[in-house]
Each structure stands twice: as C-alpha cells, then as structure tokens.
Write a structure and sequence with these properties.
By secondary structure, the chain is an all-alpha fold. It is built from eight helices and no strands. Helix 3 packs antiparallel against helix 6.
C-alpha cells in the first residue's frame, strides 16, 4: 500500500455532519451577527423558498392545464404560442416562411387554449428566474468566508447536506466554490488552533 489515506465522499460527509455544536458561547446571538455567513444563509434560504414555491406553482398550473386540455381533447402541441413557434423554428421543424405564416395567425384574437398555455409558459419562465436567483444566492453563500466557529460549523453542515444530494457535485451554479467554501471554514479552525 502507498501509505496514502483514501477517503470516500460518504466518509467526508459523515465527518462534516458530525461536527459538534457544543461549545458555542452564551452570547451566541452577538457572535452570529458579526459573521457575514449568517446573512448569506438568510438570503440563500429566502431564495430557496421562493424557488421551491415558483416550481410548485408551475407544476400545479401545468398539471391543471394539461388535465383541462385532455378533457377537451386538445393536446398542448396543437396550441400555437410565440414561444412554441420560436422553439419549433430553432429545432428546424418550421421554415422561416412557415414561421412567418404561423405568426400571422397569432396576431388575431388569442384562443382560450393559447391564453392558458401562455400562462403555463410564463409560470415556467418565473420558475427559471427564481432558480437563477437561488443559484446566485448559493454562489454568494459559498464565496462568503465565515469569521466564527459557529459560522464555520454552519457552513460545514450545509456542505455536508449539499454533498448528500444526488448529482449536485456537477451543479453549474456553484462551479468550484464547494472546495473553496470548505477551505474557508477550515481557516477559522486553524486560526483558533494557533491562538
């Protein structure tokens, strides 16, 4: 054996999750307010809640709309909206001439089905915007260096939960920030050890 220690992702997560909370000072509230990581967590948690609500609203609206269309014998692919036409043209399913011709039919009064499907598309766009906000808040959170032991522990617990999720290591919102966030938390413990 080479003498190197081989660690699995699960072992790292188990160690991070086991980090103790004991030892926090009695005046933890004052210390927490001095650590920017807690403000970053508050922003992230609000963005996460908004993202979760936006996707739930989208999924609920899409389900209700699809059920109504099914009951009426109409499939969403039969409903022309500008967004659907643009995506069909981008995929090469419509020529420019067909696209222009189809656009003229949209200039008339909007059908009930077009209006309903447009509402679904707008809800989808809102959910995607909320996801981008959540991603930005998460980037800011992971880029924020904790200043206290409590902040470092909170960050390490968050990272443990993050690593427990499926397929998030390749999450494009956080890029290489997870490693930097772990190192920021470790810096707090190293500085305390030197003191």
């Amino acid at each position: 054996m080479s003498g190197k220690i081989h660690t699995t992702r699960r072992a790292v997560v188990a160690c991070l999750a086991a980090a103790p909370v004991a030892g926090l000072p009695a005046a933890a509230g004052a210390i927490l307010s001095d650590d920017p990581i807690f403000s970053a967590f508050a922003v992230y948690e609000r963005a996460k809640a908004a993202d979760d609500l936006a996707w739930k609203a989208y999924n609920d609206l899409e389900e209700v709309t699809a059920s109504a269309f099914e009951a009426a014998g109409v499939t969403p692919t039969q409903i022309l909206t500008r967004r659907k036409l643009e995506s069909h043209r981008e995929l090469g399913l419509l020529s420019d001439a067909q696209y222009d011709e189809a656009l003229t039919t949209l200039d008339g009064p909007e059908s009930e089905y077009q209006a309903r499907w447009r509402a679904v598309e707008e809800s989808d766009e809102s959910a995607r915007a909320a996801a981008e906000e959540r991603g930005a808040a998460e980037q800011e959170l992971l880029a924020t260096a904790p200043r206290t032991r409590a902040g470092a522990l909170r960050l390490l617990r968050h990272l443990a939960e993050f690593l427990d999720q499926d397929d998030v290591v390749n999450d494009f919102y956080v890029d290489d920030l997870v490693g930097a966030a772990i190192r920021n938390a470790i810096t707090v413990f190293e500085s305390e050890a030197r003191a």
